[in-house]
Design a protein that fits this description.
The chain has 327 residues and is mainly alpha-helical. Helix content is 75%, strand content 0%. The protein folds into two domains: 4-70; 92-326, MetI-like (MetI-like fold), CATH 1.10.3720. The chain is globular and about 85 Å long. The relative contact order is 0.12.
């Protein structure tokens, strides 16, 4: 292929998108302008929403419906098998391991990120170098889960007792404790899943700390000082005033972490590939699709993930509407 062709295609795409947008705006306004004033008012919002609705339909609604239909078919996606793929998801040993591990991520990861982020934000606020603390904790957010997985795979690296330990964790513990036996951190279940969750905590706790730090600044200082003057200790002030004030922020961070936990894939794929009972739903879906080449089972696992995510989003929307009503 001539090197000129890709450059010409890129240039055409770069110039074509603005040109199409301008042409759509001019055509839409021309059509809307010919309507009566009453119809023009009713039609204009839908005219402007039409491109977004078209994109959502093509790239979100249609794939979702197609995945649901695919989950009811066999491995080739041609023959109907009904709920067989869903029965596999809830009866197969490997799928059940993935379900339980996803649940562990959902509970443990979310709780640790929320509690850790809140703790770091509250403690950092009391020191003069709080910005530096938050920057250090937030730094892992610059890494992808894939890069974090590669880094921590070296941290957890294992060699038999007596051999030089190249893994940071085993090397540090061996140096600190004379009788410590090096551990294969990523082999023994359920400890290995907790080790993977620790990687997620390392990456995401900085995000939670930054959000909580911003929310803590919004808590009225007069209220805190008044409580201290009345004799309330710091724990009481934190429990009775600060935590209730951070309720909406806590819910938002927890929602984001729940969704992150449900779709976790790359750190598991990079560090263990789902072996040693560390599999999760997203990785099991990948294995079903690209390794087992079973379209129906992959579709069923994708639908289960979607079904688990939807209630979280609905609860979050309900919470946001409640806050808007209070305002």
């Amino acid at each position: 292929m001539s090197p000129v062709l890709p450059a010409a295609l890129a240039l055409a795409a770069a110039a074509g998108a603005p040109a199409v947008s301008i042409a759509y705006i001019l055509a839409a306004e021309f059509v809307v302008g010919r309507l009566s004033p009453l119809r023009r008012t009713a039609a204009r919002p839908w005219v402007w929403l039409a491109p977004a609705l078209a994109f959502l339909s093509v790239f979100l609604v249609y794939p979702t419906l197609e995945t649901i239909l695919l989950s009811l078919r066999d491995a080739t996606g041609t023959r109907w098998v009904g709920a067989a793929n869903y029965l596999y998801a809830f009866r197969s040993g490997e799928a059940l391991v993935a379900l339980w591990n996803t649940l562990a991520w959902l509970v443990v990861f979310t709780a640790l990120v929320v509690a850790g982020g809140l703790g770091v934000a509250a403690l950092a606020e009391r020191v003069r170098y709080d910005a530096a603390v938050r920057a250090v904790v937030f730094l892992p957010m610059a890494l992808s889960f894939t890069a974090a997985g590669v880094i921590w795979k070296f941290v957890y690296a294992f060699r038999p007792a007596g051999a030089p330990q190249i893994g940071l964790l085993n090397a540090a513990l061996t140096a600190a404790f004379r009788h410590f036996t090096p551990q294969a951190w990523l082999v023994e279940a359920p400890r290995n899943t907790l080790c993977l969750i620790a990687v997620g905590l390392w990456v995401w706790m900085g995000f939670a700390a930054a959000v909580f730090a911003a929310a803590l600044r919004a808590v009225p200082r007069e209220m805190l000082e008044a409580a201290r003057v009345d004799g309330a200790g710091e724990w009481r002030v934190f429990a009775r005033i600060v935590l209730p004030a951070l309720g909406p922020t806590t819910a938002a961070v927890a929602t984001a972490m729940v969704i992150t936990a449900l779709k976790v894939f790359d750190v598991v794929y990079v560090m263990t590939s789902g072996n040693y009972d560390t599999d999760v739903l997203a990785n099991r879906m990948y294995q079903a699709l690209f390794v087992d080449q079973h379209l129906g089972r992959a579709g069923a696992l994708a639908v289960i993930l979607l079904a688990a995510t939807v209630p979280v989003m609905l609860l979050n929307l309900r919470r946001l509407r409640g806050e808007e009503a209070v305002r």
